[in-house]
Design a protein that fits this description.
Elements lengths: L22 H13 L12 H25 L4 H4 L1 E7 L11 E7 L1 H20 L17 H13 L1 H4 L10 H13 L1
Antiparallel strand pairs: 1-2
Helix pairs in contact: 1-2, 1-4, 2-4
């Protein structure tokens, strides 16, 4: 991890607008999520279970490292490097490229850091703002893909469809026809 570029002293912030404290707490929350998962290790060969077991002994040092990364605004390149694994789909010929799906395995420490960043961003947006849009489902606590699908179903079976208008991407069929007709005229 290279040192950050020099920052003029006038731009440096030592007040409450800097990086919030509590990386140790953030780390404990992220490690707790590792306990529930049984994933293959990334390029470093360390599975998530190893981080869970070592978190008590390494926690303060790892929290210090993550805090330094946050303060510098750096995400180590090594944590972004993955190991590509091809998994053969059942019932497909081994000669066919479409017979495989790929998975990129990343180091667990990078995933921990990503969770710390994501949690902090979500807390900041919810607390300080600007808050996320009501219809934002990704990157939100207690909102899932299922919630987004249910919202789309409600939109496509709601009043617009009952009136015969329907909708696609927020544009009524009538408006789509008008736009197509306008394009044909030009």
């Amino acid at each position: 991890m290279a040192p950050p570029p020099a920052v003029p002293e006038a731009d440096h912030q030592d007040d409450d607008d800097g990086i919030p404290e509590g990386t140790g707490v953030d780390l404990r929350v992220a490690v707790r999520r590792l306990k529930a998962r049984n994933t293959a290790p990334g390029p470093d060969g360390l599975p998530g279970k190893a981080w869970v077991l070592a978190s008590e002994a390494l926690g303060p040092r790892l929290a210090g490292l993550l805090s330094a990364c946050l303060e510098r605004g750096q995400f180590p390149l090594r944590w972004k490097t993955g190991k590509l694994v091809l998994i053969r789909k059942p019932g497909r010929s081994a000669d066919s490229p479409s017979a495989y799906r790929f998975v990129v395995l990343l180091d667990e420490v990078g995933k921990l850091f990503e969770r710390v960043i994501a949690n902090r961003l979500a807390e900041h947006l919810a607390g300080t703002g600007p808050d996320l849009a009501e219809h934002q489902f990704g990157f939100r606590k207690r909102r899932s893909t299922v919630d987004a699908i249910m919202r789309v179903r409600a939109l496509t079976t709601g009043d617009a469809v009952a009136r015969g208008g329907g909708c696609f991407g927020g544009v009524s069929r009538h408006r789509q026809r008008l736009q197509l007709h306008a394009l044909e005229l030009h």
